[in-house]
Amino acid sequence: NLRTFYLPHLAFLITTAILLININATLGILIILLSLTEQSIIYNLYKNLAPFIQKVAKENSKITGILADSIANARLVKNTAALYHERKKLLTQLNIKLRTQKSCDQKGGKINMFTTLISVVFFIAKFGIILWFYLNSSLSLESIIFCATMIRRIDEKTYDLCFQFSQLQERLGSIKDALALLYRPFDVVDASNAKKLKIKTNNIEIKNLSFAYTKNKPVFQNLNLSIAPNEKIGLVGISGSGKSTLINLILRAYDLNKGKICISGQDISQVTQFSLHQNIALISQEPCLFNRSIMENIRFSRPKASEEEVIKAAKLAHIHDTIIKMPKGYDSVVGERGVKLSGGERQRIAIAAAILKDAPILILDEATSALDSESEQAIEKALKELMKNKTVIAIAHRLSTLKNMDKIVVLKKGKIIENGTEKELLKNKQGTFYHLYKLQTDSYI
């Protein structure tokens, strides 16, 4: 728009101003001043419309959110007979949007009426000045006709600019919330002298770690944990024991109150977050997929990866055969949050992306807990490929999924209460791990 609309319009206005001044300096300056005054008034009137446009955009955003939620959770909506509830919620929001739109249109109508009136008044004033100059100066009739024609053209061009400005306000209103989110300051920022994380030995050292979300409610106090290069550890504990918080701290989602976490001997608070995240692959219980093709989703962690590399990763993740059976293969769009795929398929695509990323550290946060046995078996095969030559931290409620871990760490209220192999921990019949294990195995039918 800058090149095709704004620049040509501005060039015309500047050229016309020069020609008018060249014909008669006083006349040209008066017309320019009147035009600038007119557009300044119109600009400020349209500026008052911006908050109304932004309100409409916000209501549109809410409608989109309701639709996205309903579509993403279509099965839940259907199975819980919540269709009419969701429909009512959507209709209520649509009515709010229509009322907001009506208010905006009424305001816009009044502004358009005023701008039309202002344009007429200023046009008469400019034409009157030209007529006065014709009657009281030596200007030729041709010059007067040219000036009269030009003020009409100036009004047309300035009106176009104002109209485009109002359209721009509407577009900016639509993306204002998104921009505010994108440019919101981060809670955790890089140190001023932060360096790039360089992995030599992918070991993790947690030293005297203390952390609390709120004062007087510590999650961890002086926690110590050492994870050797390529060691695979499982984190176990009841809800609220600190498992997910520990993962978030390793990813540096929060700053520590005390202590430090080191990867390959480097304090993660002193390295760039970008380089930290480059070296960690995370697979969660509910993988995040974009409403894009399968190829783009797998390639997300490595945008420059070749098609052959993507296919190789998909084969290792045991998802390639499923993909090629789809109508568009790797170009198939997965839908909002991967809604067109089953839970197992989404998980294996996330594993394929992690295989492609090939980060030296892998974090599995309940990666198989929401899957059926058949899907879980396929994913366990994929994870086996993924975990080769990597340091792995796995959270799991289903303890059977941790049988291949080198070590299991049991957390309770932010403290390590047990630490050892599955075999060692099961020997302690008074231990928490044994108790949790028995609860799960005894509950099987």
Shape: elongated
CATH class assignment of the largest domain: Alpha Beta
Lateral strand order in the biggest sheet:
6-7-8-3-9-10
Helix and strand sequence:
HHHHHHEEEHEEHEHHHHEHEEEHH
The number of strands is: 10
Provide a short characterization of the protein structure.
The protein is an alpha/beta fold. The chain has helices spanning 2-23, 25-47, 50-72, 74-79, 83-136, 141-182, 243-250, 273-278, 294-298, 307-316, 320-324, 343-357, 373-386, 422-427, 432-442, and strands spanning 204-214, 217-227, 232-236, 258-263, 266-267, 280-284, 361-365, 391-395, 407-412, 415-420. The chain has two domains: 2-182, ABC transporter transmembrane region fold; 204-442, Rossmann fold (3-Layer(aba) Sandwich).
Characteristic key phrases:
single chain; 445 residues; alpha/beta; ABC transporter transmembrane region fold; four-stranded antiparallel beta sheet; 15 helices; elongated
Task: Write up this protein.
With 445 residues, the chain is an alpha/beta fold. It has two domains: 2-182, ABC transporter type 1, transmembrane domain (ABC transporter transmembrane region fold, Up-down Bundle), CATH 1.20.1560.10; 204-442, P-loop containing nucleotide triphosphate hydrolases (Rossmann fold). It has 15 helices and ten strands. It has helices at residues 2-23, 25-47, 50-72, 74-79, 83-136, 141-182, 243-250, 273-278, 294-298, 307-316, 320-324, 343-357, 373-386, 422-427, 432-442; strands spanning 204-214, 217-227, 232-236, 258-263, 266-267, 280-284, 361-365, 391-395, 407-412, 415-420. The chain has a six-stranded mixed β-sheet with strand order 6-7-8-3-9-10, with helices on both faces. A four-stranded antiparallel β-sheet has the order 2-1-4-5, covered by helices on one side. Helix 2 packs parallel to helix 6, helix 3 packs antiparallel against helix 5 and helix 12 (343-357) runs parallel beside helix 13. The longest helix is centred in the first third of the chain and has 54 residues, at 83-136. It is elongated.
